[in-house]
Amino acid sequence: MNVLTNNLLSKTECDAVLKLRHAMHREPELSNNEWKTQKRIIETLEAFGLAGAKTFHNTGVYIDIEGAASGPGRSVVLRGDIDALPIHEERDDLPYKSRVPGVMHACGHDVHGSIALGTALAFHRMRQNFSGKVRVIFQPAEEAEPLGGRSVAEAKLLDGFDLAIGLHVHTDIPAGSYGARAGAVTKSSDQFEVEFIGTMAHGAKPNAGVDAISIAAAFINEVQKVVSREMPVDDGAIITIGTIHGGEATNIICPSVTLTGTIRTSSSERRTLLVRRVGEMAEGVASMHRGRARFSSLAGEPPVINAADLVARFRETVSKVAGKDKFVERPASSGSDDFGYYSDLLPSIYFWIGSQEPGNDTGVHTPTFGVSDKVVIPATELAVQYCLDLIRE
């Protein structure tokens, strides 16, 4: 695996980065409960002379580093998410294995948060050598509602900044390589709930009632036509029914069924249309079957959209510090990330950090997922160099 040699981090900073990574991994905390992680981050920042860290969303942290050099300089936001997942870790080979039963960093957020720390420490030490501003956000609750990314937007933490940087480990990219792509990188993720209301009757006399189960079944079939017949093929829109609840006995016509699901699209413009059409489909199917529908939705993550010029610049940075053959491009993900709230407000890039190697080759959100320590420091130095390149551009 290629190791960067820029020496953008001091030995002490490298030690702090890995110390935080191990502590986060040993004591993972679920979304909206990252209290110990928040405390560790603030204490580490203060130990290196970074006072003035501010909190948000209860368990989030952000710190600003102002450059003291003269001349123009851009203002950049870098995000590292810090929450874990409700998965029991099955990696007995790790000396920093999770000590919390049923909770682990199965999506690499311990790596992301540690990279964010290293970026803050490096820029604080180099503050005499750049003009501009870096805001490092240690964001909680990427995995579950209420989302930290939404709070970043609502608290206006991106106001006055020129661009935003997000990052994520990628299990299909070899360790030591990095990737990015222009345009949509992830899909939006909006949640919906629909209750179909019929009329109870004896199962032997279905004509005397209105069967909510039949309405729900018709809806499940018909709603997919919103994707297949109303969305562009290259959008890759997805409507998923995740839960269905209804019925109390085998011989009763069911009077009420509740479904929940998600709606995904790579287009910010089509999000509203998709949600509206799912609601209209629910009401139309219910009416056709002599029932009623109650539809509600919750707006989740917007799609992450990468600015083409930031991707081109990232490719140049990777070539410069890691080697020309270390930049790769991968297809967009059908998943979602609340970094979409950032890219909805600022020109942004969400780049990938390769983590695939023998022993670390299972996917995210699995009990055997892992990322080698060898990946962390080179990725941090790359993030620092890329921020520098953008600030000075």
TrEMBL record:
Pfam families for the chain: M20_dimer (PF07687), Peptidase_M20 (PF01546)
Protein's UniProt keywords contain Hydrolase: yes
InterPro entries: Amidohydrolase, Bact_exopeptidase_dim_dom, Peptidase_M20, Peptidase_M20_dimer
Keywords: Hydrolase, Plasmid
Membrane-crossing segments per the record: none
CDD domains named in the record: M20_Acy1
NCBIfam families tied to this protein: amidohydrolases
UniProt-recorded name of the protein: M20 family metallopeptidase
The organism's taxonomic lineage, starting at the top: Bacteria, Pseudomonadati, Pseudomonadota, Alphaproteobacteria, Hyphomicrobiales
